């Protein structure tokens, strides 16, 4: 199962500079586990314990996963996962 994961600039050190990588799994959590096997350290920047980090937004096909099941959100072949760290400033 191929799921495209779009990686923000701040996390590209884990993906050797790649803007997008492929993941596999039936849920978002499984995709992140799969990514961790090839891009060590990336999962820890997105997940805190059993939940997504508070200041990281994740979307599956433009749907915010906080409203679709979090790490348990179903994914399928051809889906796109976007990881966006929250940005603040002033």
Could you give a short description of this structure?
The chain is of the alpha+beta class.
Description:
The structure is a single chain. The protein has helices spanning 28-38, 42-46, and strands at 3-6, 20-23, 47-48, 51-52, 56-60, 63-64, 80-85. It is of the alpha+beta class and 90 residues long. Helices cover 18% and strands 28% of the residues. The strands form two sheets. Strands 2-1-7-5-6 form a five-stranded mixed β-sheet, with helices on one face. Strands 3-4 form a two-stranded antiparallel sheet. The model has no long low-confidence stretch (mean pLDDT 94). The protein has one domain: Beta-grasp domain (Ubiquitin-like (UB roll), Roll), CATH 3.10.20.
List the helices and strands and how they pair.
Elements: E1 3-6, E2 20-23, H1 28-38, H2 42-46, E3 47-48, E4 51-52, E5 56-60, E6 63-64, E7 80-85
Parallel strand pairs: 1-7
Antiparallel strand pairs: 1-2, 3-4, 5-6, 5-7
The CATH H-level superfamily is: Beta-grasp domain
Cα shape: globular
End-to-end C-alpha gap: 42 Å
Structural class: alpha+beta
Report the CATH topology name: Ubiquitin-like (UB roll)
H/I helix tally: 2
Query: Sheet bearing the most strands, described?
Result: 5 strands, mixed
